[in-house]
């Protein structure tokens, strides 16, 4: 009777563990599908890619098999490739985190795409895990912001009136060139 009870308990434990493992796999699959970033995992010893999600394939145009080893480098813009490869190899050699911002290789005529790639060790048996995040829109917005600031400063520096900017507390952090010409001061002196 004791043996039957032990076998039944082991069967319940095995069933419970199998169900929990299946639930974890389902959650990870859902996270992978929902993630707005490319995800991948590689075997450190062989360099073979074990996993990459659909978003990664959409961004790079590469399947998991095509990305294996150093195959992923074909998705890196040729002008950025060597710099990225050197940084990636150095991170792997030191078993440290890898982070790089680079352009993706895109067919001629298509708009430039930028990503930030990050990769880190997931432990001895798990290899390395990585992400790539599309930052193209952010880079465009920052370039647009810089262009707008430059246009404003050009305009403000060519008017005959005094012009300045202050924060909410009233601290003035910028004066136009006309102010400096008239007062004979510098920004440092005005602080």
Report on the structure:
With 191 residues, the chain is of the alpha+beta class. It is 49% helix and 20% strand. The protein contains seven helices and seven strands. The strands form two sheets. It has a five-stranded antiparallel beta sheet. A two-stranded antiparallel sheet has the order 6-7. A hairpin with a 6-residue loop joins β1 and β2. The radius of gyration is 27 Å and the shape is elongated. The N and C termini lie far apart (88 Å). The model has no long low-confidence stretch (mean pLDDT 85).
> What kind of sheet is the major sheet?
5 strands, antiparallel
Mean pLDDT: 85
Q: Order of strands across the widest beta sheet? A: 2-1-5-4-3
Number of helices: 7
Estimated structural class: alpha+beta
Spans of at least 5 consecutive residues whose pLDDT stays below 50 are none
Count the E strands: 7
Strand content: 15-25%
- Residue share in helix: 40-55%
List the helices and strands in order.
HEEHHHEEEHEEHH
What global shape is seen?
A: elongated
User: How large is the radius of gyration?
Assistant: 27 Å
Termini separation: 88 Å
Question: Top keywords for this entry?
Answer:
191 residues, 20% strand, five-stranded antiparallel beta sheet, 7 helices, elongated
Gist of the model:
The chain is of the alpha+beta class. It has 7 helices and 7 strands; from the N terminus they run αββαααβββαββαα.
Ordered list of secondary-structure elements with their pairings:
Elements: H1 2-34, E1 38-42, E2 49-52, H2 54-60, H3 64-67, H4 78-93, E3 98-104, E4 113-121, E5 128-134, H5 136-157, E6 164-166, E7 172-175, H6 177-183, H7 187-190
Antiparallel strand pairs: 1-2, 1-5, 3-4, 4-5, 6-7
